[in-house]
Amino acid sequence: MHLIPEPAVIVMIGASGSGKTTLARTWPADYRLALDSYRWVVCGDAGDQEATADAVFLLDAVLERRLARGLTCVVDATNARADVRRRLIEAAHAHQLPAAAVVMTAPLEQCLTRNARRPDNRRVPDIEVRRQYQQISLARPGLHAEGFDHVVTDDRLLRLRLLLQRAADRHPDHQDDVDPSEHARRVLARRFFGEDLAEAFNWTQLRPQHDPIGALTIGGEEITLAYRTWLPNPMDWGFEAQVPCLGGCPGPAWVPVHGPMDLLATYDDDFPEDVVRCDRCGAGATSREAV
Ligand SMILES: [Zn+2]
Question: What's domain 9-167's superfamily in CATH?
Answer without folding.
Answer: P-loop containing nucleotide triphosphate hydrolases (3.40.50.300)
